[in-house]
Write a sequence for this structure.
């Protein structure tokens, strides 16, 4: 997980943080965390390992905080809510991919 944090999560967050326009930042977050490699391992670690492994829980928290911090320049105080929406949508797509495509 630590390699994933450094190689996928932090670079994605850094790229998002450079975007001041809210629409562009949200689009970049969705692209990176919805269909990109950043969310896959993060979500699996959050659901499967973090509840039982404090070290993984800390890394998951760091990864989520990185996304929130990246969205803060463009979304201000709403950044944690936007990050939750992006990650929640990705988690939902992993659980029900066919159901969501129909809507």
């Amino acid at each position: 997980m630590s390699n994933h944090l450094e190689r996928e999560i932090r670079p994605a967050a850094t790229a998002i943080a450079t975007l001041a326009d809210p629409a562009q930042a949200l689009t970049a977050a969705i692209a990176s965390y919805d269909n990109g490699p950043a969310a896959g391992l993060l979500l699996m670690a959050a659901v499967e390992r973090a509840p039982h492994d404090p070290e993984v829980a800390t890394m998951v928290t760091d990864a989520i905080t990185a996304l929130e911090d990246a969205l803060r320049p463009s979304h201000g105080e709403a950044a944690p809510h936007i990050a939750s929406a992006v990650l929640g949508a990705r988690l939902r797509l992993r659980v029900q991919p066919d159901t969501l495509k129909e809507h």
